[in-house]
Amino acid sequence: MASPISIFGHRGSPGTHPENTLISFQAAHKAGAQGIELDVQLTRDGIPVVIHDERVDRTTNGIGWVKDFQYEEIIRLDAGQSFSSRFQGTRIPRLEDVLIWLSSTNLIVNIELKTGYFVYPGIEEKVIALLTNYQMRDRCIISSFNHYSVQRTIQRDSQIETAILLMEKLVDPWEYVKKIGAHGIHIEWQAVDEHLLKNTKFHSIPVRVFTVNDNTQIAAFKKMGCKAIFTDFPGPACTINYSV
Length: 244
Ligand code: G3P
Ligand code: MG
Description:
single chain, alpha/beta, TIM Barrel, eight-stranded parallel barrel, 9 strands, binds SN-glycerol-3-phosphate
C-alpha cells in the first residue's frame, strides 16, 4: 500500500549513506521514499552544488567556505570518507547531477536554498533554470529559511511550488504564507501543534515536518494531518503500517 503520508529522505538517506550525495539520494529512492530533500549553495564560480553547511569541513576532507571554492576545486573533495571509509571517493554533487538522475525517477525533490548566511546572487534563477531544463518544475518544492529567497523564487516563477521553512512557532503562519505567495510550510517537528494543523488545513496549506526519525512519531504526524515528513531513515519510515 502506498504510504498515506509522503516520506522525504532528508538530505537523502543520511542514516545509512553520506548526506546530500547521489548515493544517499539513490538509497532513499531504493528504500521507497516518495521524495528527497537537498540543500543548495553556489560555488565561487556560480555553480549550484548540493551541501548543507556553509563550510565543507564537517562533511568532507576539505576546509573552508563553499562560496570560496571553484567548482573544479570542490569536486575534488571527498564527501564520503568522514561518514565511512566504505564511501571513500564520493563527491559533492552539482544540483544538475542530481536532477539528471531524478528525471529518470518519479521522485519529488525539495530544494532548500541555503541563503541564510550568505547572499548567493542569482541562485533562485539558476535553480529554476535547471528545473526547467530537466523538466522537474512539476515535481519540485523550493523552500528556504530565508523567506526573501522564497519570495524571489515566486517573483521569478509564480507557478513553481514553494514553502517557507520555520524552526519555531509563528503567529498565524497561514496568513503569512498567503501574504508572500508561498504554498506550504516546512516546520521543525517540535513547533507543530493542532492549532497550526487545523488552520493550515482550513486554508489548504500543506504542512511538512522535519526531521522525524521515529516511526511512532511519523504515524502520529500522519494522524494529525501532515502532508509529509522529512526523515534521515527513509528505509524504516517506509515500512510503517498505518492501519494498526
Ligand atoms: O528542509 C528541511 C530541513 O532540511 C531544514 O533544516 O538544517 O536540515 O537543512 P536543515
Ligand atoms: Mg535542508
